[in-house]
Design goal:
- It is a single chain.
- The strands form five sheets. The protein has a four-stranded antiparallel beta sheet, with no helix packed on it. A two-stranded antiparallel sheet has the order 1-10.
- By secondary structure, it is α+β, with helices and mostly antiparallel strands.
- The chain contains nine helices and twelve strands.
Length: 465
């Protein structure tokens, strides 16, 4: 049995990853157990957008996907147009002219023959003159190719292959958009998590600032210590402001991906549910080779190249067709008023100095190139899938590490703060512990974002939309 990766967002890594994913984008208890956040100002009438809804909207309304769909529809129109060449071709033409000069026709005696018992026709040299007037010809024809039907069939087949290629481009675009939506959604969740942490940090620093000021008032702390805490509080408030701006930009980008007004207000929901994902590398490779648009496109390109060879070979077939034609002459009495003909026409280029043979050889080499590209594409896909699996493994492991570091830093701050209240620690130690916790919080948030990003990339690598 081959090696397998079993990653469960809620159960595969007992306890830890599950908790991580559940808590990833929820409020972080950064410093002390805190009451429920009071920042509910963004909820209420504002739309709550889940990841599933965002993906659905994007696949429906994303403008680049719309263009890809239109391209497939255009290819369908080209197929229908090509099919019409299989049927008879109808043509009608009219010719209306006006003679600007007098014209004369001279028929010499016996110009049409000298017949026994009748004599020469005409019996005498005859001159027929015309006066300026209108002349009208109407011509109608129906032509049906016969031997060319095989070549036309091959052209129709080519147009169908082209339509399938555009279909694969559409799938590739849908997968790309889905991945971009997921990443942007996760970025917003990360920003929300950072905001929550920054708000709690602000609360902590305000409490610390008040405590230090009380100590300054009784001579237990220096004024410089108060200023140090105040500066850190100002920096925390600035970080919160900056994160809000970053999140606003992220929401605009997500709205654009969803194909709607970029200023549409919405909130996101945590994605850290108990959803599980089990990945076997071999199975993942098989799925990817069956689902990845570039692999399917490479296979279609082989079919396209083989059809090109058949089309070139069909050039050896003589062109044979049948045509029914009707001509009406409305103004020249000398000519028949109505003429109908049926004709079988043929055309064959029996010698071409080796041109068609060279063209076939060229197309056969294109088939070999297409097969080589398929082999390369399959190898690239396998490497890509395995790389994404390893990246997901690393991301899951990193969450474990950062979670432990975060817990340790949080406990260190709690203990240091208690010591400071009991005058067994100095303010510098408290601030150092606070800085350490802030760093570990960021590491943890980055690890969680990295996990979900890696998961999105793996899903795309496996051809999921």
């Amino acid at each position: 049995m081959g090696p397998s990766v079993h990653l469960r967002a809620g159960a595969g890594l007992p306890g830890r990853v599950y908790r991580v994913l559940i808590c990833a984008f929820l409020a972080l208890t950064v410093y002390f157990p805190s009451p429920p956040a009071s920042g509910g100002e963004e909820s209420g009438h504002i739309e709550t957008l889940t990841l599933e809804e965002a993906l659905s909207i994007a696949l429906e309304d994303n403008l680049s996907i719309d263009n890809a769909i239109l391209q497939v529809e255009k290819a369908g129109d080209a197929v229908r147009a090509a099919k019409t060449k299989l049927f008879p071709e109808f043509n009608v033409s009219a010719y209306e002219s006006y003679h600007l000069s007098n014209e004369a026709f001279t028929f010499r005696k016996g110009a049409f023959g000298n017949f026994p018992g009748i004599g020469p026709i005409p019996a005498e040299t005859t001159k027929i003159s015309t006066a300026p007037d209108f002349t009208t010809f109407i011509n109608a024809s129906v032509a049906q190719p016969i031997t060319q039907l095989y070549e036309i069939y091959l052209y129709v087949k080519q147009r169908k292959v082209e339509k399938s290629l555009f279909g694969e481009e559409l799938r590739a675009r849908q997968q790309q958009v889905a991945e971009e939506v997921k990443k942007e959604y996760y970025n917003i969740l990360k920003s929300e998590s950072e905001l929550q942490a920054e708000r709690e940090k602000i609360v902590f620093l305000r409490e610390l600032y008040e405590l230090v000021n009380r100590y300054v008032a009784v001579g237990r702390a220096l004024e410089s210590e108060s200023l140090e805490v105040k500066a850190r509080l100002g920096k925390a408030e600035y970080d919160e402001f900056k994160t809000k701006n970053e999140m606003a930009t992220q929401k605009e980008k997500l709205n654009k991906l969803l194909g709607r007004d970029v200023e549409t207000e919405f909130t996101v929901t945590p994605v850290g549910s108990a959803e599980s994902i089990t990945v076997n590398p071999k199975e993942a490779e098989e799925i990817a080779l069956a689902e990845r648009p570039e692999v399917n496109a490479a296979r279609l390109n082989i079919e396209f190249a083989e059809n090109e060879v058949d089309i070139k070979k069909s050039k050896y077939i003589p062109e044979v067709g049948v045509q029914l034609q009707y001509t009406a002459n409305l103004d020249i009495e000398l000519l028949p008023e109505n003429t109908s003909t049926v004709a079988l026409f043929a055309k064959w280029e029996f010698f071409d100095w080796g041109r068609r043979q060279a063209e076939i050889a060229e197309k056969k080499k294109a088939v070999i190139q297409a097969k080589n590209l398929l082999d390369e594409s399959e190898s690239d896909v396998i490497i890509d899938v395995n790389t994404k699996i390893r990246k997901l493994e690393e991301a899951a492991a990193l969450i474990d590490v950062t979670e432990m570091e975060q817990a340790a830093a949080r406990e260190r701050l709690r203990v240091t703060m208690n010591k400071y209240r009991q005058e067994s620690a100095i303010l510098e130690q408290v601030l150092e512990a606070e800085s350490s916790l802030e760093e570990k919080n960021k590491d943890y948030q980055e690890a969680v974002l990295g996990y979900w990003t890696a998961r999105a990339e793996l899903e795309k690598a496996m051809g999921e939309e």
